[in-house]
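User: Let's play a game. I give you a shape written as tokens, and you guess the letters that built it. Ready? Here's round one.
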């Protein structure tokens, strides 16, 4: 039996995330559902999604539609109150160095795009879809392993642009000094946000109710830290109708090879 909420976890959000879980755990037990005492912060994310004993997890849009439709139960998308996004939606922002004179993402078609993971909706698929919609392709990319690492790669000049989950970017702006060296030049289309899941074949209603009660009961300081306002049920078609991106055009990262 496992619960894991890793997606927006960083040292500054750890206490608030654990407080959210404590409230959700107790609410789940009030619904007669089993729940582990504590979150597992060390479990491999991808392996966690497929576990039959998953009580609560978070999944990105791209791996859900590519591999996990029918294998997990969608509880709902996190709603973080992003401007110009619908309930339960998010988008990526394109960040570049503040001193870079280029004005729009299309100006970076042949520049280096920092990609957190090839299987990331916010870090790669959203950039791919944006480029397709605007008549260009990103032709060079490096893999960084995380959104914060992507923004560091841009700030340090190892990459020129990155597509970053807007909630993650808000946390980077709050907590990381290098954010001052970056600016936003655009954003992707809005789509279902990072979503809460449980193991396949379960009724999502009590899990959604427990999460909703936990969000409502969070102390104000923790609520501000997490920015999570609600869990919004969205139809599966909102996820599966999105296109499958081509693989990113990866080249070596000089910081890793030099």
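Assistant: Ready! My guess for every position:
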């Amino acid at each position: 039996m496992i619960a894991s909420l890793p997606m927006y976890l960083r040292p500054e959000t750890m206490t608030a995330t654990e407080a959210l879980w404590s409230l959700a755990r107790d609410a789940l037990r009030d619904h007669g559902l089993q729940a582990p005492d504590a979150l597992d912060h060390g479990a491999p994310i991808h392996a966690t999604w497929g576990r039959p004993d998953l009580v609560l997890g978070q999944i990105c849009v791209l791996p859900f539609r590519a591999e996990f439709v029918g294998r997990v139960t969608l509880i709902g998308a996190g709603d973080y109150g992003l401007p110009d996004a619908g309930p339960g939606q998010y988008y990526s922002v394109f960040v570049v160095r503040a001193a870079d004179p280029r004005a729009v993402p299309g100006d970076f078609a042949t520049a280096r795009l920092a990609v957190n993971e090839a299987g990331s909706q916010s870090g790669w698929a959203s950039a791919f879809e944006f480029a397709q919609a605007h008549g260009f392709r990103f032709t060079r990319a490096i893999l960084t392993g995380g959104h914060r690492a992507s923004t560091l790669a841009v700030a340090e000049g190892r990459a020129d642009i990155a597509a970053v989950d807007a909630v993650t970017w808000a946390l980077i702006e709050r907590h990381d000094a290098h954010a001052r060296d970056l600016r936003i030049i655009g954003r992707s289309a809005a789509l279902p946000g990072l979503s809460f899941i449980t193991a396949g074949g379960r009724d999502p209603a009590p899990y959604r109710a427990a999460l909703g009660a936990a969000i409502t009961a969070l102390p104000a300081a923790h609520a501000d830290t997490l920015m999570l306002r609600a869990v919004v049920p969205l139809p599966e078609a909102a996820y599966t109708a999105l296109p499958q991106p081509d693989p990113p055009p990866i080249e070596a990262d000089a910081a890793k090879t030099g």
